[in-house]
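Reopening this ticket.

The earlier resolution said the output was attached, but the attachment link was broken on my side. Pasting everything inline this time so it's all in one place.
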Amino acid sequence: MLRLFPGQPEEVAVAGAYLSHRLHELGSEASPFVYASFVSSLDGRIALRDPATGESRLPAGLVSDTDFRLFLELQAQADCLITHGGYLRDLAAGRLDDVLQVGMQKAANGLARWRADNGLPPQPVVVVASASLEFPMPDSLARHGQRVFIATGAAAPPERVAHWRAAGYEVLIAGAGQSVEGAALLRELDMRGLRSLYLLAGPRMLDTMLRDGRLSRLYLTTAHRLLGGESFHSMLAGSELGKAGRLRLGALHYDSGTLDGTGQFFAHFEPWAHGPEL
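Inline output:
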């Protein structure tokens, strides 16, 4: 793929492109490094929703081997993966693949060894964020010996909190209402020594991390196509972010190697903490 920014344009290999960011080294006790990634169409769709069933799906037009490899490289650098109950429900229903372990996919060639060589445990910790606490726990987490936390708000259903605690899981209260709040969740995870946190939890978690000023970096793949559709998901669905949504470009790459030839951009952004007032 072609690096367009920063510096002069230059061809770079896909394999290792995101590993070179050394995300696992950027967090500290005072400030965990929190990063998220999304793949989007040019018209801002990250998923389409079936109006009849309410089920969401990732359109084939947003899927590419290059994006998946780079996703796995981001996953490999995490102390902790933060997912949500909706993903676990979709996983149990067979609508999504299990991406909660490093090195399990064919495209993950070398990533398990990379973790070992860089002093990381074989698999990351997993945090499940949920307001309802209604989800199935996948067997793969216990099979791979992963530590699991369940995060929810103080107003979560007490019987569901008791259910998960009785099942042996540590439930973190990370928010004043039912939903998880970014700053409160990071305080809990920081106390447990987790420094590199990869958000797989979708728009709601991205929103709270931005509003609480806790997002360190956003990775965005933009597929060069328009999807349309009247019912869809985008990266954010809440009220206006204002200054909390200001980002600055860290890098931009272009890949023309997708199967249908339309191409895609790979970019990452960081909060523009010291930019001019708007």
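Reporter confirms the inline version is readable. The first strand starts at residue 2 and ends at 5. The radius of gyration is 18 Å.
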